[in-house]
Specification:
single chain, 44% strand, disordered N terminus, 6 strands, mainly beta, globular, 6-stranded antiparallel β-barrel
Length: 136
């Protein structure tokens, strides 16, 4: 399938949106204003996300685990940081390489996420996304 919308294949992804300027990311181009938090991610556990992989097309991943990292005392004057990890399960064959991917979700829309391949299990492979967020 060349160049067409993945939605035409019934896979839930639409053609990439166009950004207004070169500095705008995937989220801005898609009008996505989702703000990631550990609690917000927990609300998405068990749900399917679609990854747009240039080599494999649409790949389904399921959010399996959200792991919050312990808070550390910030140095004087330094902002506090919230850190958490997301673990996604995907198909065992055709592993995704580590990198930035355009992803799509029914509720939160299109966004970019850096995925790191993890362990291969019977019938699936894990992928990890790491978040370090400055707290206001």
């Amino acid at each position: 399938m060349g160049g067409g919308s993945l939605a035409l294949a019934g896979l839930g992804l639409m053609a990439p949106a166009r950004a207004g300027g070169p500095a705008a990311g995937v989220e801005a181009a898609a009008g996505n204003d989702h703000q990631w938090t550990a609690d917000g991610a927990r609300a998405l556990l068990g749900q399917r996300f679609w990854v747009n992989d240039p080599a494999q097309g649409a790949v389904a991943l399921t959010l399996e685990t959200v792991r919050e990292l312990p808070a550390r005392a910030a140095a004087a004057g330094a902002p506090a940081i919230a850190q958490f990890l997301l673990y996604f399960a995907g198909p065992a064959g055709g592993a995704l390489a580590a990198g930035n991917y355009e992803m799509d979700h029914d509720q939160i829309g299109r966004f970019a996420l850096y995925l790191i391949p993890g362990e291969k299990r019977t019938g699936s492979r894990l992928y990890r996304a790491e978040f370090s967020l400055l707290l206001a």
